[in-house]
Design goal:
The protein has helices spanning 3-12, 23-26, 28-39, 159-169, 191-198, 204-207, 219-222, 231-242, 345-370, 386-405; strands at residues 44-48, 57-63, 66-72, 78-82, 97-99, 103-104, 111-112, 118-120, 137-143, 146-150, 177-187, 250-251, 257-262, 294-299, 303-307, 312-321, 324-334. It has 415 residues and is α+β, with helices and mostly antiparallel strands. Helix 1 packs across helix 10, helix 3 (28-39) crosses helix 10 and helix 5 packs across helix 9 (345-370). Bound molecules: FE2/S2 (inorganic) cluster (FES) and fe (ii) ion. It comes from Mesorhizobium ciceri.
């Protein structure tokens, strides 16, 4: 059976406004196509500029089959490379993060400059040309403190994304923040179930007692429609924009990324049990108000974000298999904020640690039920699950034409 045609047939035959057929959530061959046609082609959020504080700082990540290393070079620029030695392929950097003067392969010590050039390869034959064996580059862009990579040979133009998102992000000065805490959990569910769950708050009241103390479950906040006819949202945007913070709801024409600023409930300013700030020092020296609510930002397929006055919580989704997804959460605070003085780490992380675990259980139960032979696609609530419908439409609109094209996306060649 031709899996591509099978997948395309199910996409074309699907009922609008309904969840997808079972194999989209469970089948390893469908998962491979998701990886090849979405994950190896689109821009992916990997980490933050502030995680690479100085030349030689690096972080590594595994995207499907591809190990990748992000490193700040001697000129301060952040580069991404395939983390596979040009000698015999060993991983060059084999820890999650670190600092190195040069990137030295642990196998035979081929040594690379921080910009990827091969500097040193012991006792190779005469005529060996080091310039042919630099680390293979991966497209890499940084915007407002977020680092994105793209594994495609010809990445989509990043400029429109930068133009839309950057004004929202810059006032928060995340490049100068620091990571107060990070956690990675593995959810036993397909990456699309993780997203579907994220894109609605229909489930919040019954599942998220901590988050619901401060976060509004209104579909005008979580969805993609109706925010501009919600007087509370419109008043919030006006207030925030008057203080210099871009806030209105914006979404790109393809529906891949969105930004909007939403008020929190009542007089809450942060995701804490009391609604009071978790960090005494503002996240940004240039954002003075506490009443800015949360900047909600998502970019399919890797990230959703909440940026508050006192801290930011950022999320990265990475698929592991058809039925496992890693979700990494990072709590960012002002770089000079001191744990135990300006914030209590347990208080800072409590609400989203609980919420993440609740969402993990929800996703796992959803995945479990979908495995039933009795499963069939069910209808989304138009009122509450407009965001989910939009996510599924985005997915279908991206993968459908790529399935129809055929072929396998090529990797970037060595520069
Ligand atoms: S595989 Fe890297 S030096 Fe041999
Ligand atoms: Fe949730």
């Amino acid at each position: 059976m031709d899996i591509r045609n099978d997948m395309l047939r199910l996409l074309k035959g699907r009922r609008q406004g309904f969840s997808l057929e079972q194999p989209f959530y469970t089948d390893p061959d469908y998962f491979k196509l998701d990886m090849e046609l979405i994950w190896y082609r689109d821009w992916l959020f990997i980490g933050h500029d502030c995680e690479l504080p100085k030349p030689g700082s690096y972080i590594t990540v595994q995207v499907g089959d591809y190990p990748v290393v992000l490193v700040r070079d001697q000129h301060g620029k952040i580069n991404a490379f395939h983390n596979s030695c040009r000698h015999r392929g060993s991983r060059v950097c084999n820890t999650e993060k670190g600092t190195a003067a040069k990137l030295v392969c642990p196998y035979h010590q081929w040594t690379y400059e921080l910009d990827g050039r091969l500097l040193f390869a012991r006792q190779m034959a005469d005529g060996f040309d080091k310039s042919d064996f630099g680390l293979k580059p991966v497209a890499c862009e940084s915007v407002g403190g977020y680092i994105f990579i793209c594994l495609a040979k010809e990445p989509a133009d990043f400029a429109p994304m930068r133009a839309m998102i950057e004004p929202y992000l810059l006032p928060h000065r995340l490049r100068e923040a620091k990571i107060a805490f990070e956690s990675t959990i593995v959810e036993k569910g397909n990456w699309k179930l993780v997203w579907e769950n994220n894109r609605e708050c229909y489930h919040c009241a019954a599942n998220h007692p901590e988050l619901c103390k401060t976060f509004p479950e209104a579909p005008t906040v979580t969805g993609v429609h109706g925010a501009d006819s919600d007087p509370e949202m419109v008043a919030h945007w006006a207030r925030c924009e008057a203080s210099g913070l871009p806030s209105k709801f914006r979404i790109d024409p393809a529906g891949q990324y969105r930004a909007t600023r939403a008020p929190l409930l009542r007089d809450a300013v942060s995701y804490t049990m009391t609604g009071k700030r978790a960090v005494q020092k503002n996240l940004s020296d240039s954002v003075s108000t506490d009443r800015i609510g949360s900047l909600l930002l998502y970019h399919y397929p890797t990230t959703w974000n909440h940026i508050l006055g006192d801290h930011a919580v950022t999320f990265r989704v990475l698929p592991i298999s058809a039925t496992e997804t890693a979700v990494t959460t990072k709590w960012l605070v002002h770089k000079d904020a001191v744990e135990g003085v300006d914030y209590d780490l347990a208080e800072l992380t409590h609400v989203w640690t609980e919420t993440n675990d609740q969402d993990r259980r929800i996703v796992e139960e959803n995945a479990f039920g979908i495995l039933s032979p009795a499963y069939e696609p069910g209808p989304y609530s138009e009122l509450h699950e407009g965001g989910v419908i939009q996510f599924v439409e985005w997915y279908a609109s991206f993968i459908g034409p790529r399935l129809a094209e055929g072929g396998r996306p090529a990797l970037r060649s060595v520069a």
